[in-house]
Amino acid sequence: MPGTADQALTFYIEAFGTIGSQVSVLHRSSHPVQVPPQAPAQVAAMAGKTLTAVLSFDGIEVGLINAGPELRPTPSISLMVNLDPAVIQDAPGAARRLWAALSDGGEVRMPLDSYPFSPCYGWVEDRYGINWQLILTDPRGEPRPFILPSLLFGPGSRGAREAVDYYLGVFPGSELGRRESYPDDEALVLFSDAQLGGQWMTAMDSSAPMPFDFTAGSSLMIRAETQGEIDYYWERLSAVPEAERCGWCQDGFGVSWQVLPSPAELSTLSPQQYAALMTMTKIDLAVLRAQ
Fold first, then answer.
1. Domain of 161: which CATH number?
2. Boundaries of each PhnB-like domain copy (predicted)?
3. CB 3.0–4.6 Å: which of 69, 94, 192, 200 could bond 179 by disulfide?
4. What's the number of domains the chain is made of?
5. Do both 190 and 256 map to the same domain?
């Protein structure tokens, strides 16, 4: 987010408060007030401002980062809000209230309406550039978390099927949930979901051209407790060397990942540790702790 993370925190807490969802700030770190003279201009401009914040949406963690406009999110990664009538009282009413809050100042991509796959669904990009899919799910189906990251693959890409199959082999303890193909093209995935290392996500293919693609503005985060875990995921997910920076990498499908240590470790960085982090590609815990 281009310097708007603090405003966004308040916006999401208030928006999800309209449906009684408990949103809390788990961790928050700030850019150092004093930055080294050799720091890039964009880093100096953020001095003292919020660097990262991790929000919990009823137990589901979503991270926000203050960054430059070059890292604006796109609809290729969105957050799907699972409004389950078996869990949420008056789920259709909750969908309308949350939609009103998130769409205020945003851009509607699919109106909140009835569709063949759901009696109440809508897709909106909020005022801060984050894309949300609100869906009223069938309470007779298998339960899913309140919020799921969702990947949208465009025509000409390697596609949702190949990407999800690859991720299933990367993350221990993973499993495929549903996978449905387009009626007129079995090669394209209309909808799929999978559990990757304990986290449910969805993935689908677009049958129409898209004026956007995956960028580092939206990424998926992996919490690695040891250097061995960082090395494991980095080796399997980093496929674009020029995209490697500060724990960020990009895989062979265009999706960006953050392979990071615990929030507590990153929230107490000294100016020297912060400067060292800014020079890293894959995070080296030994070097970071030695500063």
1. 3.30.720.110
2. 4-135, 147-259
3. 192
4. 2
5. no
DSSP letter for each residue of 71-136: G---TTEEEEEEE-TTTSTTHHHHHHHHHHHHHTTSEEEEEEEEETTEEEEEEEE-TTS-EEEEEE
d(CA 243, CA 94) in angstroms, rounded, equals: 39
User: Can you tell me the distance from the alpha carbon of 98 to that of 101, in angstroms, rounded to the nearest whole number?
Assistant: 5
Q: 205, 236, 265: which is the final residue of a domain?
A: 205
Q: Do 145 and 200 form a contact (C-beta atoms < 8 A)?
A: yes
Helix (H) or strand (E) holding 235: helix 227-237
Dihedral of alpha carbons 104, 110, 111, 113, sign: negative
- Asked whether residue 69 is assigned to any structural domain, the reply reads no
Whether the Cβ atoms of residue 14 and residue 101 lie closer than 8 Å to each other: yes
CA distances from 258 to 65, 111, 255 (A): 12, 32, 10
Nearest to 64 by CA among 101, 33, 26: 26
Amino acid (1-letter code) at residue 72: R
Tell me which residue of 17, 48, 19 sits closest to 31, measured CA to CA. Answer: 48
State which residues form the domain around 130: 77-205
Q: Are residues 103 and 145 in the same domain?
A: yes
CATH code (residue 223): 3.10.180.10
pLDDT tens-digit profile of 201-220?
999 999 888 889 999 999 99
156 lies in the same domain as 246: no
